[in-house]
Amino acid sequence: MDEITQALFAASRQGNVPVLNEIFAIKDNVNVYDEKGFTPLILAAYNNHPEAVEALLGAGADINAADNSGNTALMGCAFKGYGYIAQLLLRHGASHDQQNGNGGTALMFAAMFGRNDIVDLLLEAGANKDMKDMRGMTAIDLAAQQGNIRAVELLENNVKHL
Prior knowledge:
Elements: H1 3-14, H2 17-26, H3 40-46, H4 50-58, H5 73-80, H6 83-91, H7 106-112, H8 116-124, H9 139-145, H10 149-157
Helix pairs in contact: 1-2, 1-3, 3-4, 3-5, 5-6, 5-7, 6-8, 7-8, 7-9, 8-10, 9-10
ANK repeats: 36-68, 69-101, 102-134
Pfam families: Ank_2, Ank_4
Keywords: ANK repeat, Repeat
């Protein structure tokens, strides 16, 4: 990995937008991967840097790029509980039903880890609550398994509007 790409990853991880803007002036492709398959966008989202996420999206970052396990920036936000960034990614067209290597979705992560504001956000965005992971479990199954009664209620009461 060249020095500019290393700097891109470091600035994304740290949320250093001025450095990102300098890099964008000399590097036109921000869709690069590190050894774990992380992209700069995934790192910025996972480390809760909304301004860096916005800058990377503006520079052409692939919003649905996945790491080596199939996890996306939106899935990372659902896991960590970063509702503002999840909302930002959804506004920019992130796929709310993309599945990782185990069949998990952002909605499943949010339900499983008690990120109920993100469960609600994903349901409002049209996430499919009936998708199943590799074990045949849905988001409601995972919420119930973890004792997340509020997510169970949100998922049970969510009715698609036609």
